[in-house]
Design a protein that fits this description.
Layout lengths: L3 E8 L2 H13 L5 E14 L2 E15 L3 H11 L8 E4 L5 H10 L2
Antiparallel strand pairs: 1-3, 1-4, 2-3
Length: 105
């Protein structure tokens, strides 16, 4: 069973994404968070098609920290229902995976 995961979450802007990333690193809930600005999201919310500019956040962490990380993100995130997708990492460079483990709780 994979020990590591990649979590996808969007943010409405760079400022909020940076706050979330800094807190996640401070609490050792992720080893690395990539912030990718310029995302254009199209979705249905409350029966209406919406379009927004967002920042994609990619969290690299251990699976056993995903719930704690989710709680942290919810406490800082302005969305009612933020994107939260947890993807198992089936493989990768062993040194990189070991680094993720060493940087997280």
């Amino acid at each position: 069973m994979p020990e590591h995961c990649l979590i996808l979450c969007t943010s409405p802007n760079q400022e909020i994404a940076r706050i979330i990333a800094a807190k996640a690193l401070e609490k050792k809930l992720a080893a690395c968070i990539n912030l990718i600005p310029g995302l254009e999201s199209w979705y249905v919310w409350q029966g209406q098609v919406q379009q927004d500019a967002e920042v994609q956040m990619l969290f690299k962490t251990q699976k056993n920290l995903a719930d704690a990380l989710y709680k942290l993100v919810l406490s800082l995130h302005p969305y009612d229902v933020p994107e939260w997708l947890v993807l198992d990492i089936a493989g990768g460079g062993q040194d990189y995976l070991n680094w993720i483990t060493s940087c997280t709780k």
